[in-house]
Structures are given as structure tokens and as C-alpha cells.
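Tutorial sheet, problem 5. The two components below are modelled jointly, 698 residues in total.
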Amino acid sequence: MSRLKTIEWAGNAVRIVDQTCLPAKLCYEDITTVEVMFEAIRALRVRGAPAIGIAAGFGMYLAVREFPETGSVRDFLTLFEKNIDYLAGARPTAVNLSWALQRVKTRIAGLAEKETSASLKRAVFDEAQAMLEEDRASGRAIGEHGFGLLKDCETILTHCNAGGLATAEFGTALAPVYVAAERNKKLHVYSDETRPLLQGSRITAFELKAAGIPVTVLCDNAAASLLRKKTVDAVIVGADRIASNGDVANKIGTYGLALAARAAQVPFYVAAPLSTFDPSLATGNEIPIEERDDAEVTCGFGRRTAPEGVDVYNPAFDVTPHDLVTALITEKGVLRPPYGEAIRKALQG
Amino acid sequence: MSRLKTIEWAGNAVRIVDQTCLPAKLCYEDITTVEVMFEAIRALRVRGAPAIGIAAGFGMYLAVREFPETGSVRDFLTLFEKNIDYLAGARPTAVNLSWALQRVKTRIAGLAEKETSASLKRAVFDEAQAMLEEDRASGRAIGEHGFGLLKDCETILTHCNAGGLATAEFGTALAPVYVAAERNKKLHVYSDETRPLLQGSRITAFELKAAGIPVTVLCDNAAASLLRKKTVDAVIVGADRIASNGDVANKIGTYGLALAARAAQVPFYVAAPLSTFDPSLATGNEIPIEERDDAEVTCGFGRRTAPEGVDVYNPAFDVTPHDLVTALITEKGVLRPPYGEAIRKALQG
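Model answer (C-alpha cells):
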């Protein structure tokens, strides 16, 4: 049993875990063209903001690697730009996708004047590989800091998938669990199934089971009474965006979970890299909340579960006010209230 | 558009709404034999504690109605007893089933000495019909008292199905909504889908839509953030058992919803007939909580949604402590804290 490698360079191809097969089976897919990478991102075969960014980086390498060694820099850049635009359209709303493409673009822009097309090609690969390694390092650092917080815990509860399958390897909320396992401390993880898309039961349970970590799945609505029974030592979740005051946007259901943790006097931790913090937002009230397709709720399992034509409320995220958050776990350490000051310092340092 | 008749006597048969067809279609089934009634209860074609009790009562009439008018009382009683035992096995854990059978039995025991088999047969029918009518009357009374509480509300939120389809017609939590509709006040109802069995999206949404009442379905985990937005004026749910101190056992997820209502300062009402109160229990801690089959969580939609062999926590109910309950709505009126005294008086009066 070991941690899954969500995405990696496998000599001649990008190897991904095809997440649409989970939990029925574990399929790896070797991707050798940018067109197949586009489709893998679009169809959620690779998902999770950090993983999508890395996939886009390697996708750019796949797009240019057949460019002739003797070709001109100008022709290289034409091909490069065309594919930047192409990949950006795979999931137009995924911020990390455009962030990663921008990063590759900036790297190439800084080199183009004085380089050959061969060295530019290499630079695209190196940038993708760098993003992957930075993500791993950031995950490990979050894991180490989080492990410090959880070292007296035996049982934790998480929501959605903020694990290795959303990133290159360690994840955010699950990173401390993996670090603990390396040190022969097996935390028992309760995983909310996380309606409507069931990332908790499909993906979190799968990756923990694959890593030999004990995991129990429950419906989201059973978490509050589980916490009330005092059988969970801590709640730990990821984040999609964190405002300057520490308000946290994360997968729908996180706020209710934070209320239940507070009522049971169980610590509520949020694990996220500093790239998740948005200093342009004063509070969580300013974070836009995406509402998604009705069909995720009314026939999300291939069968109709609500009457035809019924109205649906299906927000993808909610906002947990900072006063319900015990600590924020970042790659630069654990941030405690008052969050305004702690976040400012972490982002500056 | 009108309220559905969950169960009624249709001249020569018991007509039920077959709830296993919901929400795809509305099917009525005319049941003419006790064997088919047994199977309808066992397979959840008729469900909800009060409705099951009524179904069992009419099932007993179906069992004896072909008994010859000239037959002996002794032979009648043999047939009667055999079928009491038979029906009790349809869902051995449903308290209302044995309660209803006991009630029919007591009625017959009080008569047997001096009656003919023809009049005993009639008494079985009358008792079933009486249970149905009492349930309707109790639902209407709960509806009237609840309407008084909700008369300034525009939008309410409910969980699971404590509507007409769990009873003869009005339901408990939804009874005030139906009474309001009769008076041309259309409350907008948010209905939690209620994992794992989705009674909220399959059944509550269906019966409200059929009655022309506006309804919006949401995943259970979206209720807390909806409440935080202050767009809901009250939460109203049913109950499976209420202890002497007002602690409420109800469908899993009710406790988390009560916490979210409290955080948003939204009133949290519980509607239930007095037969739901259990004076033998001092607090909710003594209420046994049924844990159900893993498969409801891991493949409840005909498709596997969690890895094979994963552990599952699947309690069917939770307990909401009385201090989170704003009021209890019964057929004898609205009970307010301190509940110990209010409940004692209502049960005595």
C-alpha cells in the first residue's frame, strides 16, 4: 500500500489516475498528446485545482515536444501560443488552469530572445516538472505542520477530497494523515461522502484505502451526531479560497460541519497552501459562490431522484466564518487567530 | 392539484400510493388480499409509521372478509389470530405496525363473547377506518396549530418526509403547509434531499409539487449556508420519538439542521402527534439509534459510490437536544419550554 501518484511524467507520457473510474477501479492513463490532455481535463479524468495546473503544464510540453529541433523560435512561439489558448478552454472557470498556463508563458517570455527552440521546449518541461515538485513540497510541509497539531489525535473527520488525488501526491487536508502514516501512526479517518458529486466516498475513501489507512464513509448529514458522540478528535478540511480575515470558502457542507465541531468542542482545522489565500478580499462575504447544474442533485447517480421540473438549490461552496476555524495549516506553518495579522505576515514572509 | 390520498378504502380494495415508483411516476395500487398487503408493507410500497399502521388495520379486514357469514366465532378468531401474527412479521421493527395490530386485537377481544362472525368482521373494518380518520384529524389539528406559528412565514425548510405520504393525508411537519394552502397562503418549501434514502427529494418534493406548493430541493449539506443567508423563516420537521424532556429523535441530519437554525436565529419546530411521545424515557440519550445497511450509503442509487469493503457509519436517526427546539407542535396544541411540564400536561389532558 502506498500513496497514489495522481500525475507524473512517465518517461514518454504524462501518467494520470483516471478519476472517472473511481471507486470501481484504479485506472492509469498515459497521455501523449495535448488533445488527449485537453479532453482529460475537460472530462474530469484529472481534477483538483493543483493537479489541473500541473496537467496543463505537462500538456504544454506534449504540444511542443514534436517541434523540429531545427525549427525557428518564431514558429515555436506560434505553436506555443496557440496551445496556451487551446488548453485554457478545457475548463474555463478553473483558476489554477490559467494560473499554471500563465506561469509557463512567463517562463518562456523571459527566455525567448536568446534561446533555441530546443531549449525553450526543455524549459516548458522543466516548468511543468517544477510545479509538480513545488506542489509535492508544499503538500509535505503542510503535512508536517498538520502532523504537529494532530499528534495526540486518533480519529479525524474530513469532507470532500483535499487529498493526494486533488494534487500531485500529498494533498492538503490529508497530508498530515500521510505524514502520520509514514511515522507508523495510523489515524482513523471519517470521510463525509460529500453530495452531490461524492468526492468523499468515491475519491477520499479510495485513496486512503489504497494507502492502507483506516477509513469510514458516512453521509454528510450524519457528521453532526458523530461529532456529538465525542468519537472524533479533530475535523480537517481543505479550502478553495481564504479571505484576508480568515473566512474560508470550501466545498458545500463545510460550514455546517464547522458549526457541529464547535458545538462538540472539537477543533476545526483548514489546510491550504498560501496560493489559496486571496488578499484582495476583506471577508468571505465577497467570495462568489458558484451554483451548479440541477442534474447533479436530481439525477446524480444515473437515476432520477427528484420529480421532473422541481426547483433545485445547488451551490458548490459555502463560506465558514473565521471564528469557527481553530487554525489554518499552511506550508509556512500554522496560523492562529487573529487571522488578519497572521495571514498578512505569512504572505509577506 | 390536491393532496394525495396515501391510503384509503376504495369500495372493494385498499388503494395505496405505491411509493417505490416515486418520483418517476405516481402509481396507485388496489390491494385486495392480505398477502399482497404484507408484501406492500415489506417492500416499502407503503411507508411512514402512521400509514403502515393503517395499512395493517385494513390488511386484517382483507384477511377476514371472505370468512363465511355463517361460520363460527371460534373459527373466525383462529383465522384472525393467524393473520395478526402474519402481518406483524412484515416489518418487525416498525412500532406502529404492532401498535395498530394490537389495537384491532383489543377491539375484537372486547366483542368476541357476544358477537357473530359477521359483526366481528365489520368491527375489524371499522377499527381500521377509525385509525385512518383519527390520523387525518390529528394531522389537521397539527396543521391548524402549526399554521398559527407559521402565519408570518414565507419560506420554510424541512427534512425527510413527514408529509401526507407518511400518514393518511396531512402529515405532521407538512400539515401546516397544507392548511396554509387551503387558505390561499402558499409557503415556499425547501426540502433537504435526505441521504441515504432521499425521502426529501423523492417523496416530499413529489407530494408538494402534486399539491401545487412551490418546492426547492437541496442537498442536506447545503442547508446550513442557506439558513445563514436568512432566506428561510422557519425549519419544521417530524419526529420518530420524543423523550419526557423534549429531546427529539428524528431522521439523521435533524440535529445538524437544528444547530444551523440556532446559528442563524431561525425558529426550529418539531411537529408530531402525542403518540410519538415516550414518557418512559427521561432524555434522548436513552433512545436506541438504529444503524442500517452499508449498501444504502455505498450503492444506494444502483451504482457503487464508495470503494468495495470500505467501513460505513449509517445511523438512521439522531437526537436533537430539547434546548435547540423552539416549540413542539401536537394535535393538542403548541408546547413550549420547559418541555418536561408541558409534555406531562399534554399527555394527561
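Marking note: The mean pLDDT of chain B is 93. Full credit if you identified this.
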